[in-house]
Amino acid sequence: MKGAVMKKGKQPRSVGRVARDVTVIGMALLWLVPTWLLVVNALTSVETYTGSPRWVPDGFGFFDNLVAAWDAGDFGQATANSLGYAFVCAAAAVLVAAGAAFAVAVMPVRRPALWFWLIYTGTLLPLQVFVRPLFSASAELDLYDSWTGLAIVYTAICVPFAFFVIRNYLATVPREITEAALLDGASWWRVFYSVHLPLAKPAMAAAFIFQFVWVWNELLFGISLTFSPTARPIMAALADLSSGYSRVPPPVVLAAALAVSVPTVALFFAFQRLFVSSMRTNI
Amino acid sequence: MVIGSMKRLLVGGVAVTLAVGLAACGGGGDSGGGAQSVSEVTLYSDNPQWKDGFEKVSVDLKKLTGGTGITPLSIPSTSSYEQVIRSSITTPKTADIVKWWQGYRLQDLARTGSLTDLTEVWDEAEKKGWVNPGLKDQFTYKGKVYGLPLSQSNWVVYYNKKLFAQLGLTPPKTWDEFLAACEKLKGAGAAPLWTGQTDGWTSFIPFEEFLSKSDPQFYQDVTSGKASYTDEKAKKALAVWKEMIDKGYTSKTDIKFLDTPAQLKAGKLAMIPLGTWFNGTLSGAGLKPGEDYGAFLWPSINPSAPKSVIVESGVFAIPSAAPHKDAAIKVMKSWMDPAVQATWTEFLGDTSANPTVISKDPVLAEIAAEVKAMNPTLLTRYWEASPPALVEGNVQDLGKFMLKPEEADSVLADMQKRAETEWAAWRKAGG
Amino acid sequence: MSSTVSTQPPVSVAGSAAGAAPRRRTRPGGPRRNLAAAAFLLPAAALVAVVLLVPFGATVYRSLLTDDLQPVFGGLSAYAKLLDDPALSLSLLNTLLWMAGTLLLPVGFGLAVAVMTNAQKWGRIARLAVVLPYAISGSAVAVIWGYMLRSDGAVNQMLANLGLESWAHDWLLEDPLNTFGMIMANTWQATGVAVILFLVGLQTIPPETVEAAAIDGADGWVRFRHIVLPQLRPVTYVVVGISLANALRTFDVIWVMTQGGPARTSETLALSMYRESFLLQRPGVGSAIAVVLTLIVLASSWLYLRGQGKAAR
């Protein structure tokens, strides 16, 4: 069937197709430029750094820079902390949000719009607003500088976005499926667990990845709500190097920033498949 | 921030459930301890790189105080640090010793009543000759002293020694020599003087120097609200700056100060006006003191004006609610001891506020000797010399001037307007 | 998921994804169903309410107090100060610029990339190039774009090499070039989010609808406009909503690149709030700015999203 379609409209299509391919290549190349600069400048060794950025690498100081960064900062424990925060908080938020999304999009809740806005508003508030209140609250509850305290904050912040994405996705599921399951005598929990949760996997995966990346890259709460090595996330450790008092030269900081991005980049690679699994639509 | 009981109930209800379940995951904090012999007092700062230094100093302090040392804790972002300290300083969760800033910034904190009076400690140190008496004003609020100096950074001009030697230049002693050096450096393709504004605070550096080297008394008057920014003397300072910009003696203003060591090393930049705390950053970039770089004090623009040097001193203060206040005071009493200061400033790479401690670094030693010989008025750095809100705003205006030097008069008028508003607000709040 | 629409002609496909059943009022079946709904909703609602909404409420309350050492009730005086301050008016203008920039650029590019990289085998690689920046931390993005846009940075270097020195500018210092530059930096990173979300949305489109149109002779562009785009409407709401909220909250990029300067000309309301609350120690005014910013985001989200109420169930 595909072959027949292609043959039919081939002539006018190929010009359009070439234009499209060229555009895609052009955009991809443009997008790679800053990434290229990041890598090149992270490779610069401290000795040859002139204070201005470069376009082409000059020697290979990357590993020296990394070692210097590792010595200057305290990254081992912080990495473990952040892995914990990112996995646990993103997963917890996605699950909790999926439940709420299911309730709002599928279950016949009274005033679904109210619940939607209640939870969605969480994404709209500027985060700096929370620093002082959360600091005071965590101090009073003895959760200051604890893994638990920061984890609760991260999970809560991750819920609204996940909720938004999953809810809109679940809203596209035809009602007939839900009704059929209910008619079969399934409880709401069963319907959620056996029908909607599997269906929502792409949305949940997308939400998980976004929140994992967000938690991993998060800095503000990391430095305001924790300071000891057992609770500090990795961006806080990185901030040690790049603070205004830093004696660590910029290439080292850049190399560290690049190295610290590796887990999230790896995650993107690994999860790519989930977004493109059933892409048979030939647009 | 006021937390209503309703909120406390809500917050408690949910969080307690989780907290009880995972209580074991709590992190570190201070070590606590009984009222009698405290072995560690906690010290909060916004500089994580000081950790090693404090550990070294702790060894000396333990000997002098009979067993009490320092546990350093830090928050790497200055503004987050400020928020945390301000929120916690009246609660028992605060640290025993807190790093803060001098001048009006210290006053800002002291007037909330949350700092311990350390006048006795200061006077004792001064009697022993352990602290420079000229600094006392910067640590005082309404006649009482609230902190001890972390160090004494003199503000100097760092220069590329090799470049100077190449061009046959020596550190300028007069303003004309300075301008002549700039011209030669420009001809050699280097930006003569670094001036920047994208760090958010560095735009006041040339302003304070050009003002104070013309008329230090006026600098003190204008920063204490007694003189106007629209005075002729302020206009003249900006005119001097504008002349330098027009002649191409200043660098592009979007170079951050942490990039300047590399640019100095590469010969793209010739002079950097900063405090002597910058030593550490320069050596971190691989520059050797005395060989690759040196420093000189700013020459006077007005030869008949009294000599002055801008000085920056961090502050160590003790919150009134500190959990181990007595131990902290004991530690502070020994803080200015020459043994402690020698260890500390060697680590820091800066000059001590204890005039008896001589630095081993050749550049610092030279500057300290010059300052001693000159016997100048010690002026507070602009950042701490006026109420914080006033300084923050004026620094932005100076940034505007750097971009559009022709608007000097309107910039000064804006600065004066702000000064009037902010001084009124400061005095209303108890001054 | 697409089992019900295979026999319907392409034209009415737009309706099915948007939700076939009319919204129903409460159904009989009382307490047990409500309990079930509560169980599903409670964890999320409780977390968000306690950690986010209550502090925000405290912020709104704080915006009604003055900034004296001992704050007293000041009513709307903090809000009045917003109208007085010219720097804050510029900040508001910049915020609106950011809003426009983010609506057009990441959303537009995201859609284009998601749709156009479908067909080729190597589309996945191109997509990765666009999506990868999202994995890098905000401050690293700011540093590298700072490197690009500085007066001695990569862009000006390249222009000089190409002989186009006259095009070189002080990108970070001149206003509004600095704001545009930072919007580009944000776009570079935010497009990845849009791409992924649009990809997820593309999966909800039944392939039969597209193939049916292809058989009928519709070419790529027509298929896109009339078949694909309408079915992407639910996910477009998500992308626009998220992009808008993120752009208005952007802080790291601006703070590291220009600190809102020079002379506060590239400041947005998020930065102004930070400046007032944390640098100038005026939490009353800062809280007022936070409330205004939130209202702007809420209003624009509501204006846009209420259209999807029809698409809900």
How would you characterize the overall build of this protein?
The complex is a heterotrimer of chains A (283), B (431) and C (313). Chain A has 283 residues and is mainly alpha-helical. Chain A has helices at 2-8, 10-43, 62-72, 75-105, 112-120, 131-140, 147-170, 175-183, 188-199, 201-217, 220-225, 234-242, 250-260, 262-276. Chain A folds into two domains: 2-62, no CATH class; 74-246, MetI-like fold (Orthogonal Bundle). The longest helix of chain A has 34 residues, at 10-43. Chain B is an alpha/beta fold and 431 residues long. In chain B, 46% of the residues lie in helices and 13% in strands. In chain B, strands 7, 8, 9, 10, 11 and 13 form a six-stranded mixed β-sheet that branches. The two termini of chain B are 22 Å apart. The model of chain B is unreliable at 1-35 (pLDDT under 50). Chain B binds chain C through residues 1-4, 7, 10-11, 14-15, 79, 82-83, 86, 108, 111-112, 197-200, 252-255, 388-389, 392-393, 396-397, 399-400, 402-403, 428-430, and chain C through 46-47, 49-50, 54, 57-58, 62, 68-69, 150-152, 170, 172-173, 257-259, 261-264, 274-275, 278-283.
Instruction: Give the distance, in angstroms, between the N- and C-terminal Cα atoms of chain C.
Output: 16 Å
For this structure, the CATH topology of the largest domain in chain A is MetI-like fold
User: Within the CATH hierarchy, at the fold level, what is the topology of chain C?
Assistant: MetI-like fold
Q: What oligomeric state do these chains adopt?
A: heterotrimer
Radius of gyration of chain A: 24 Å
Estimate percent helicity of chain C: 55-70%
Give a brief description:
The complex is a heterotrimer of chains A (about 280), B (about 425) and C (about 325). Chain A is mainly alpha-helical.
Topology record:
The complex is a heterotrimer of chains A (283), B (431) and C (313).
Chain A: H1 2-8, H2 10-43, H3 62-72, H4 75-105, H5 112-120, H6 131-140, H7 147-170, H8 175-183, H9 188-199, H10 201-217, H11 220-225, H12 234-242, H13 250-260, H14 262-276
Helix pairs in contact in A: 2-13, 3-13, 4-5, 4-7, 4-10, 4-12, 7-10, 8-9, 10-14, 12-13
Chain B: H1 5-21, E1 40-45, H2 51-65, E2 69-74, H3 78-88, E3 97-100, H4 103-110, H5 119-127, E4 140-141, E5 144-145, E6 148-149, E7 153-160, H6 161-166, H7 175-187, E8 191-193, H8 204-212, H9 216-223, H10 232-246, H11 260-265, E9 269-275, H12 279-284, E10 293-296, E11 308-312, E12 315-317, H13 325-335, H14 338-348, H15 362-374, E13 377-380, H16 382-385, H17 388-403, H18 408-428
Parallel strand pairs in B: 1-2, 1-3, 8-9, 11-13
Antiparallel strand pairs in B: 3-12, 4-5, 6-12, 7-9, 7-10, 7-11
Helix pairs in contact in B: 2-14, 8-10, 17-18
Chain C: H1 13-17, H2 30-62, H3 77-84, H4 86-116, H5 123-131, H6 138-149, H7 154-161, H8 177-202, H9 207-215, H10 220-231, H11 233-249, H12 252-257, H13 269-279, H14 283-305, H15 309-312
